[in-house]
Known about the structure:
By secondary structure, the protein is an alpha/beta fold. The chain has two domains: 5-142, Rossmann fold, CATH 3.40.50; 157-286, 3-Layer(aba) Sandwich (Rossmann fold), CATH 3.40.50. It contains ten helices and ten strands. It has helices at residues 14-17, 20-30, 44-47, 60-78, 93-103, 126-134, 166-182, 204-226, 239-249, 273-279; strands at residues 5-9, 33-40, 84-90, 108-112, 139-142, 157-161, 185-192, 232-236, 254-257, 284-286. The protein has a ten-stranded mixed beta sheet, sandwiched between helices. Strand 7 (185-192), helix 8 and strand 8 form a beta-alpha-beta unit. Helix 5 packs parallel to helix 6. The chain is elongated, with a radius of gyration of 21 Å.
Amino acid sequence: MTFTNILLPIDFSERSRAIDRYMRDLCNRFRASLTLLHVVQVPIMAYGAVDSPVVFDFPLAEIMDSAEKSLADFAATAFPGVPVTTVVEEGEPGSCIVEVAKARGVDLIMMPTRGHGRFRAALLGSVTAKALHDATCPVWTEAHCEGGSTDHLEWRNILCAIDTDHEGTQLISTAASLAATSKGSVHIVHAVAPPDAAGARYGASEFTAFLKDQARQTIGSMQALAATDFPVCIEAGRTPEVIRYDALNHQADLILIGRGVLPRFAGGLRSQAYAIVRDAPCPVLSV
Length: 287
């Protein structure tokens, strides 16, 4: 798996600027071109109401011109030697990111993120959430990683979090391709439903052991189809917690997850993608 056209939305915050070293390394590794996108969001009050006695004069043209200059200056300073295209759009940021990615044939969206407000430890930024939900290409995200975006420059240890379905087989193949490109290793993790406190007294632990055994057999068949033999960890618990624990235990540089699985019993990575990204101790690549 390689990336040839990467999109990096920029809001000129400290967080978005801090990723420049990571981006340079990624573009050089894959010999990819880079598109920097800044979205100008017009305040609702600027549109006014039909019966509004006051019309708010929003200097959109001046702001767009200033953003284009700032984006060009940032590109020249942060990404010397990298083919960079700068784009400034007006609209709702989440929708613009997805639309620009589709229009320009982007194959990877980079989204360094922290939730806004007092409860940022419990929230994923709304713009990132929309990109994760709507984008058709892979989305790289990083939230709450101590030390900034330079801690996991090289994808030496890749954690592949899978469900036991056809998408899981595709994800294993993707992990193998990424590992080959990055000269890294892959570890597979899968979470099964944990027994509740009451059920533990009535054979729930035996049922959990059964689920683990069935999952191990299924993942073995999936690896046979993908022609891989990666080590596998199967634990009972909430999926985000199991993935976080395993990522810390194996010092993962990248967590690979899929976004195409609908919620269902003992699985459903799609339904928990936001929680996985929010709790992950390293970047997450959602494909």
